[in-house]
Design brief:
This protein is of the alpha+beta class. The protein has two domains: about 90 residues, Arc Repressor Mutant, subunit A, CATH 1.10.10; about 50 residues, Dna Ligase, domain 1. The protein is built from five helices and five strands, in the order ααααββββαβ. A hairpin with a 5-residue loop joins strand 1 and strand 2. The longest helix has 15 residues.
C-alpha cells in the first residue's frame, strides 16, 4: 500500500475507533495537505478542494472542523501566525523544523543533525525521554530585512 493510502486507512481506523461517521470532507482536506508542497491556510485548502472537487458541497466551516479533528488525532500539524491564523501541513513528511518570517509569513523547512543530537543530549542530561518535538525559529527573511 502506498504511503498516502496508509494514511487514509489510518484516518478511517481513527474515525471508527472514535465511533464517528467517515466523511469524504475529512479525506479531501487530508489529501490536499498530503499533496501540498508547502504550508496552507484553511482558505487555501478550501479553494483547492473546490477546484479539484467542484461537485463537493463542502463549506469553509467544514474545512475548519476537519482541520481541527485531523490535528487532534495527529495526522496534521499547524503553525500559528497570531492574527493571521494558522497554516497546516501533513505529518507524513520526514521530521523537519521551521524558520518563519514574521514580516511576510515565508516558511523555510530545515533539518540539522547537530541540533537533533543536542536536543537528545539535553533531554538525556535532564532525565527526559523525547516523544516528539517542534522547533520554530521566528525572524525576518533576507527579502524583508
Amino acid at each position: 500500500m502506498a504511503k498516502n493510502e496508509e494514511i487514509i486507512a489510518e484516518l478511517k481506523k481513527i474515525v471508527k475507533q472514535k465511533g464517528l461517521k467517515y466523511t469524504e470532507q475529512r479525506e479531501f482536506v487530508l489529501k490536499i495537505l498530503m499533496q501540498a508542497k508547502g504550508h496552507l491556510t484553511a482558505e487555501e485548502i478550501y479553494n483547492l478542494i473546490k477546484m479539484t472537487n467542484p461537485d463537493s458541497n463542502i463549506g469553509i466551516a467544514t474545512v475548519y472542523r476537519a482541520l481541527s479533528f485531523l490535528e487532534e488525532v495527529n495526522l496534521i500539524t499547524s503553525i500559528t501566525f497570531g492574527n493571521e491564523g494558522k497554516k497546516y501541513e501533513s505529518n507524513a513528511k520526514e521530521h523537519h523544523d521551521h524558520l518563519i518570517c514574521t514580516s511576510c509569513g515565508k516558511i523555510v523547512e530545515f533539518v540539522d543533525e547537530e541540533i537533533e543530537k543536542r536536543q537528545n543530549l539535553i533531554a538525556e542530561k535532564n532525565g527526559f525521554k523525547i516523544s516528539s518535538h517542534s522547533m520554530q525559529l521566528y525572524g525576518t527573511c533576507k527579502k524583508c530585512q
